[in-house]
Design brief:
The complex is a heterodimer of chains A (304) and B (319). Chain A has 304 residues and is mostly helical. Chain A is built from 13 helices and no strands. Chain B is built from twelve helices and no strands. Classes of the chains: A mainly alpha (304), B mainly alpha (319).
Chain lengths: 304, 319
Amino acid sequence: MVTQDHTDPNSTQDNILNLPPRRPGNVKYILYYLRHKPLGTIGVSICTIMILTAIFANLIAPHTYQEQNYEALKQSPSLNFLFGTDNFGRDIFSRVVHGARISMMVGFLAVVVGTGVGAAVGLASGFFMGKFDALVQRIIDMWMSFPDLILALTIVAVFGNTVPNVILAIAATILPRGVRVIRSNTLAIREMDYTLAARAIGASNRRIMLRHVMPNTVAPFLIIMSSMFGTAILTEAGLSYLGLGISEPTPSWGRMLTGQAAQYLSTAPWMLVFPGVAITMTVMGFAFAGDALRDIFDPRQRGR
Amino acid sequence: MRTYLLKRLLLFIPTAFGVSIVIFVMLHTIPGDYATALFVGGEGTSIVTQEDIENVRKQLGLDGNLATQYIRWLGDFFQGDFGTSWNNRRPVIDRMLPRIVVSFELGLLAVTIACVMGVVGGIICAVRQDSWIDYICRGSSMALQAMPSFWLALMVVVGLVVFFEWLPPIGYRQIWEDPLRNLQVLILPAFVVGLRSSAEILRMTRSSVLEVLREDYVRTAESKGLRRKRILGIHVLRNALLPVTTLAGFEVVFLMSGQIIVEQIFNLPGIGKLFVQAAAARDYPVIQAIVMFIAMVVLVANLVVDLLYAWLDPRIRYD
């Protein structure tokens, strides 16, 4: 989803001359990159802010998320209550800040489980090929014929909407995409000269897989993790909105928009605006960061 | 082409069966079955004998082992009997049919809106690359994709209420009863659902048109002195819209996720609303039937897209 492709031939000439070594991990290159790709920088900044907010929610939020102030019901945003208060007099800013914690935690764990298991299956499927691969691919085909929300809702409905189940349900929607991406990468790496060389000197399957193939799938793995993070947060918000995600009183962003909140859309619209802004910002931030990661790790895909 | 068609169809059948098995097994691994759940916790639990439970099980079609249950369920499914709702003891099919009409209508409207907005926007962006209109379209399409659809819906309603003091009409009417009212009620939800998909279609159309614009045959057409409109219409669009067709097919899947939530917000009696109700009440036969139905719609949509693509683009060889 990269948007800026600087294909102006004159400027690339200059860039090549001034470009610090293109190695991931090179600080100079990263700094250079951040200056020249503003969207990536914005994305990384948003991600950092959101992660810090989630970690230090207790310090940032002026109130607790449950504190009800009956003298200040449905107040519009002010210095006291940055984002206003809801129908129970709870400070919406504090709730959004605490919501970051639960939404990010659920999103993060779901992505780790989903892409992690997906990558392991994809690696095995791409590496061994043959019948096993064909079987896995058919299963993934079936898996992907369920729309995300339907799959997640069904799992939560069957096993109950506890936090671990919600995480697993979201992970289940991510898993097939992890398999697809890592499998296609593994298939490509398998044909590389260094893999063939390793095979020629008699390295075992295990060794080739762990020492040669796996390290080279780290980049796509990180990229898919960061781009799936946004999807995970959206799915969590959707589940919570429908009342089958994280339950009250834990403030999840999706949950804050549900039920009664909609009744106040004409009298207290701020109740609806800010949690949604938080979701949108986070999802966008991680999407931009994912694109930036892809540009750094895989320059060939730049501008796609 | 014929072999491809045959192969694709043959692949469809095992996938469809696999999906049905997955759904069936998943919904039957619930901890504790419904027959016992009916009695446990109620007054006079001790009076209930094992025989009673067996009877209820038979009524609900839960007797026998998993394989016989599956075959019975599948047989019923093909005969249009989707089981009986556990909650109100009505046949699931009766509850689903009127709702499928609503959802189908909403989906059709949404896809139309998404395609028209996405394709037209994408072409304008590509032709006027790097102009302000290009930046606005791309920026807003990125923002749209990051928004949860229910929040977008809420914001649209908030905007209408706060700035225009106008509340969209609620209360669905069947299209054959009151077509105008039907459209009034559906247009806003369809717009919200479609908007999100249009963002993806816009980006795809844009990059695809840009790619084709750089092709040699476009340069040839230009040097022949053809008018720009004619080049766009005849040479560019026919080639550029091929990948968009595939994407539009996949959007059908994404649309469904959006539809579930939007039906909830606008209180439309569609399949998504029924699904959420069933999920909240754990009405397994209804969940099972709806998931099965949706998975089949998706599989058929994918099949149609694949075949359409092969038909539209004869350059591609499938073997």
